[in-house]
């Protein structure tokens, strides 16, 4: 464990807590893409298959449980909670996210480190996570006024993977034979997808104006 | 063999 990875995990945890805070306290999911939340639940479900088979550390197991429980409960909240579901804008959240699942799965079948079920599911979860934010970014461009919590949620979600990139660089230089191209490239693609969001988020913070993404 | 793979990451 290094400081970049710990910072990354804490940033990721913060993004989930911000989202749960928004949904649970103000009982609203306005501006939040259910599709991205469903993709993230699938990412964690396919990535943490080794939750009960490979014990790495208490921290690792605890965090996996937190991410699994929180992502599935967020999907449940938006779909079934009688008040929250009313604020879900399904006419705007129209990204066909199923079109992301199949290509990621096919790619995982072709490009992976080992052709085993667990490895392919793990690789699938990496590719899927790289593109999971797309429905949310599209929704942000459609919803004119982005509220602070939603903006902070997306920012933290993008920031966590950038910190992971620093972690991979650190591990590359400190651990012999630490090379994982699949992880690195999908993590880089994921972070690059946030590039323009980061730009507008920073501009709104610098000029102290409301965050708006150009259509 | 507990080789330090990325699998120890979240």
Automatic annotation (TrEMBL), chain A:
Family recorded in the similarity comment: Belongs to the ERD2 family.
Highest taxon above the source species: Eukaryota
What organism, scientifically named, is this protein from?
Answer: Olea europaea subsp. europaea
What Gene Ontology cellular component terms go with this record?
endoplasmic reticulum membrane
PANTHER family annotated for this entry?
Answer: ER LUMEN PROTEIN RETAINING RECEPTOR
Biological processes per GO annotation: protein retention in ER lumen; protein transport; vesicle-mediated transport
Q: Which topology term describes how it sits in the membrane? A: Multi-pass membrane protein
Q: What is this protein called?
A: ER lumen protein-retaining receptor
Q: Which UniProt keywords apply?
A: Endoplasmic reticulum, ER-Golgi transport, Membrane, Protein transport, Receptor, Transmembrane, Transmembrane helix, Transport
Q: Name one GO molecular function term.
A: ER retention sequence binding
Q: Where are the transmembrane segments?
A: 55-78, 98-115, 121-140, 152-170, 182-202
Q: Where in the cell is it found?
A: Endoplasmic reticulum membrane
């Amino acid at each position: 464990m290094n400081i970049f990875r710990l910072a990354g995990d804490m940033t990721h945890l913060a993004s989930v807590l911000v989202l749960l805070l928004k949904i649970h306290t103000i009982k609203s999911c306005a501006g939040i893409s259910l599709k991205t939340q469903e993709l993230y639940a699938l990412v964690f479900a396919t990535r943490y298959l080794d939750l009960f088979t490979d014990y790495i550390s208490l921290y690792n197991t605890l965090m996996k449980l937190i991410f699994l429980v929180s992502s599935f409960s967020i999907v449940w909240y938006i779909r079934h909670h009688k008040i929250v579901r009313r604020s879900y804008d399904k006419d705007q959240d129209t990204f066909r996210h199923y079109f992301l699942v199949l290509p990621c799965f096919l790619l995982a079948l072709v490009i992976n480190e080992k052709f085993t079920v667990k490895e392919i599911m793990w690789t699938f979860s990496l590719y899927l996570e790289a593109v999971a934010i797309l429905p949310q970014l599209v929704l942000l461009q459609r919803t004119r006024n982005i509220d602070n919590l939603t903006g902070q949620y997306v920012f933290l979600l993008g920031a966590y993977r950038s910190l992971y990139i620093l972690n991979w660089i650190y591990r590359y230089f400190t651990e012999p034979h630490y090379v994982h191209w699949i992880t690195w490239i999908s993590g880089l693609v994921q972070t690059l997808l946030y590039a323009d969001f980061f730009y507008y988020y920073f501009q709104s913070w610098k000029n102290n104006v409301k965050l708006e993404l150009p259509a | 063999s507990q080789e330090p793979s990325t699998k120890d990451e979240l």
